[in-house]
C-alpha cells in the first residue's frame, strides 16, 4: 500500500502521506549509507596519515643530527653542550670537576642506559632529598653531582654548565610522564642474599674480574674510571653505599658480560671497593678538603700512585 502511495497523490497531512514520506527517506538513507561509510573511512585514513607525518616531523632529533645542523637555537645548543659535558666532563666543565670521572662514568652511555642511572628523569623533579633536607630541582641535583660524585666544587645555579646539563636531561626526558619515575631509573635493588657482604672475597673477585679494566689499585685506565682514590667519587657520593654500588655493579659490570656476577658477588665487590681510600665528604669541613686538594696536587706533581 505504501509503495502505491508514493506513485499516487496522497493528501498532504494525511497519515498515508506522512508514512509514504518516511518510507522514501528510509530507502534513500539506505542507498547513501555505504557511500557515507566510505567517505568516513577516507577521512579517517587521511587524518591518520597527516597525524603520522606530523609526529614524525616532531620526533626528537638525535645528538648527531643536532651536531650536523649549521644553525641551532639556544635550547638545541644547550642540549649539545650538555651532552658534551656528560661525555667529557673534565674537558667541558673542568673548572668545577675535581676528579678524572665524567658524568657518563656513572650515568652510562650518556645517561641513556636503563639500570645505569639514566638521565631521563626531569619529570620526577623537584623532589625532596634526605641528603640535603630540602626540595631539589633538577639544577640543584646537577650541582650536587659536581660536589660529590665528581669530587669538585658546586657550580652557581645559573652557570652555563648547569643550564646545559639541565637542557640535556630535559631532552632525554621528552615523552616521559611527569611525576612518574621512568622505567629502569636508578639502579636495581638487590634482594637479600642471606649473607653479609664479604670484602676479602670481594677483593679476589675484583682482581679476577674488574682489575683488567679499572686497574689493580682502582686507579682507572684511560676512559675507564677510577673506582677509589682521589680521582674517584668522594665519600659523600651516592655510590659510596654498598647496596647501591652492588646494584650498579650487578646490572652493568663487567661491560659486555653484564649480570654475570651473582648478587652475593656484586655485594662482596662493592664492600671491598667501599673500604678503600677515597676523597673526604665535603660536609666534613672545608679545611679538611683544602688539605686534601693540596695533597692531591702534590701527588700529581710527584707521580705518587693511587692510595
Topology:
Layout: H1 2-7, H2 15-57, H3 63-68, H4 74-87, H5 89-92, H6 108-111, E1 127-129, E2 134-136, H7 138-147, H8 160-172, H9 199-214, H10 242-252, H11 263-273, H12 286-302
Helix pairs in contact: 4-8, 7-8, 9-11, 10-11
Task: From the alpha carbons, calculate the radius of gyration and give it in angstroms.
Answer: 32 Å
Number of strands: 2
| CATH level-4 homologous superfamily of the largest domain | Cytochrome c-like domain
First and last CA, distance: 108 Å
- Can you tell me the number of structural domains? 3
Spatial order of strands in the largest sheet: 1-2
What summary fits the major beta sheet? 2 strands, antiparallel
What letter string, H or E per element, gives the SSE order?
A: HHHHHHEEHHHHHH
Name the poorly predicted regions: 1-9, 49-57
CATH topology of the largest domain: Cytochrome Bc1 Complex, Chain D, domain 2
Provide mean pLDDT, rounded.
86
Q: How would the global form be characterised?
A: globular
Q: What's the level 1 CATH class of the largest domain? A: Mainly Alpha
CATH architectural arrangement of the largest domain? Orthogonal Bundle
| DSSP summary: helix tally | 12
Which percent bin holds the helix content?
40-55%
What is the beta-strand fraction?
Answer: under 5%
What class do helices, strands and sheet pairing give? Answer: mainly alpha
